[in-house]
Amino acid sequence: MLKRLHKLVAAPPVTTEQRAVVLAGKPITYTLKRSGKRRSIGLRINDRGLTVSMPLHASESWLHEVLQIRADWVVEKLDGWRARQIPAQVWAEGEFIPFLGEQLTLRVITSTAAAVTRQHLDELQVAFRGEISLLRVERAVSRWYQEQAMTLFAARVAYYAPLLNVAPQQVKLSAAKTRWGSCSARGTLRLNVQLIKLPLYLIDYVVVHELAHLREMNHSAAFWRVVASTCPDYAKLRRELKAIAL
After folding, report:
1. pTM of the prediction?
2. Domain check: are 105 and 220 in the same one?
3. What digits encode the pLDDT tens for the residues 205-233?
4. Are residues 153 and 125 in the same domain?
5. Long-range contacts, 72-79 (Cβ 8 Å, 24+)
């Protein structure tokens, strides 16, 4: 107990604050994290923006110097993230719904039976009993996405598993924020439901990628040879997928 209390008392402090700076002529807001554990200044950019981590007692002049040296890199990376951001979906009549790389026109109607059905190849009809609301439309289409994803993903796994000589135990849907898929050592594949919005060839690449982990639980050269045996243009598909924001 004393050792545990000592560790809690002795843990290096961490402080966080929001700041703004002009880099390469552009105003940039960022999160500054100071930590007693750090010995250098590190910059990270993701969908939340720029985060700068630095030693607890590092000088402001050092921080300013690092930011200005990396200014062009920061602006380029932030612009890249913003360009990849998918506009927020609007769940209203006449809006477009992405599905398997296509855009379906959303049609919302009142009916005696609630259902979501694809009409005329390029329309998705959502029928409701009673009052129609954007929230009800969103929930109905989300359930439809999940149903379509589960059926399609299971079929693609069943197709590719024998080609790779593997036997997955289970296929599940994932709602991960940063990963298109994953595979456990026990043979469970988790495929992101958002994949159902992408073209089939990208879905197939993710399926092959995750199935290949049942033979090579890593990203070694041997792993990529397994992927290439069924998906020879995997490098191109990998780049295309990385350019799409989840």
Report:
1. 0.70
2. yes
3. 999 999 999 999 999 999 999 999 999 99
4. yes
5. 72/24, 73/43, 74/23, 74/24, 74/28, 74/43, 74/45, 74/50, 75/23, 75/24, 75/26, 75/28, 77/45, 78/28, 78/45, 78/49, 78/50
